[in-house]
Specification:
three-stranded antiparallel beta sheet, single chain, Rossmann fold, 314 residues, alpha/beta, eight-stranded mixed beta sheet
């Protein structure tokens, strides 16, 4: 008898996380066989959610256990009581808790933008829990100009009067994703909106306070020192371009860099230097795409799939 087909929808679970940020639950969705020791963890960008990886997860689930968390403050995960802890240090600590709950020592990692920064931080650790690393449109230098662009929209309009108003605004914000079908755009927008009970309004599916690090960086208040590692200090206080070379150069696992050819966050100059440093990665660029490739298209999925499928010692 053949094995039963895998369900077309994910299983949902939570991991309880702690640390200086206080007790909070992080939600994650899981695809594939729950006992499969071959695990791929997919982590989304700053204002996105785990549903972004549904197409990739469906493509990988027959061979991997695919785990996609909602980072703290997003989606189905708890909001942090103190927004000062919205940063890579806390997110990385939460991912360590997740990997422990999965009862696995090493995982393959796919991280988009912020998810890539979290993966970079974990992969640079001694005895890193990442065996293969995909960094999707994020590099070892974060241009201050691109961070300023992000700061202009994150948390600025947490509620919209109607879904139509939200769709117009979000299509503009996410224009860097590049061409998508109407069905794909609908998913990209619907997954980051929730209804405001008792009204016709909708709100973004994240805590507006995740924008606090950007307000501190680009506003007049520079007094908050609640950062805990090199990545957080750089992202929260970018007087100029953010230099993450010490972290990147410490990575030793096989690495794949994905870049939207029009990206302002991951420049071609940074990409060229990254090719020759640290893990000496493989590279794939996608024409007509800015920040960031959504990994919803067949050509993008195929590149990731081929890289992940190689033996971890390659």
């Amino acid at each position: 008898m053949g094995s039963s087909p895998l369900p077309d929808e994910p299983r949902w679970a939570f991991v309880r996380c702690g640390g200086p940020a206080g007790d909070h639950r992080m939600a994650y969705q899981e695809w594939g066989q729950p006992g499969n020791p071959e695990v791929v963890v997919c982590v989304h960008g700053l204002t996105r959610v785990s549903d972004d990886f549904s197409e990739l997860a469906r493509a990988l689930r027959d061979r991997y256990r695919v785990v996609c968390p909602d980072v703290a403050g997003r989606g189905r995960s708890d909001w942090l009581k103190n927004p000062a802890f919205y940063g890579v240090a806390q997110y990385a600590a939460d991912m360590v808790e997740l990997i422990a709950q999965l009862k696995i020592e090493r995982v393959r990692w796919v991280g988009t933008s912020m998810g890539g920064l979290i993966g970079m931080s974990l992969a640079a650790m001694q005895d890193a829990p990442i065996s293969r690393l995909v960094l999707n449109d994020v590099g070892a230098v974060l241009p201050a100009q691109a961070l300023a662009r992000i700061a202009r929209y994150v948390g600025r309009t947490p509620e919209f009067e109607s879904r139509r108003e939200a769709e117009i605004a979000l299509r503009a914000i996410f224009s860097g994703f590049g061409p998508h079908s109407e069905a794909q755009w609908r998913k990209l927008i619907d997954t980051v909106l929730v209804e405001v009970s008792g009204t016709d309004k909708v709100r973004v599916h994240y805590d507006p306070a995740i924008a606090e690090p950007f307000r501190l960086a680009y506003g007049s208040d520079q007094s908050d020192e609640a950062t805990h590692d090199l990545t957080d200090r750089a992202v929260n206080h970018p007087a100029s371009d953010i230099d993450l070379w010490p972290i990147y150069d410490a990575i030793r696992c096989p690495t794949l860099l994905l870049r939207g050819a029009l990206s302002d966050l991951f420049t071609s100059q940074v990409l060229d230097e990254m090719r020759t440093r640290g893990p000496r990665p493989e590279v794939a660029e996608f024409a007509g795409v800015g920040h960031a490739p959504t990994l919803m298209h067949a050509d993008q999925i195929a590149v990731v799939d081929e890289f992940l499928s190689r033996p971890s010692w390659h």
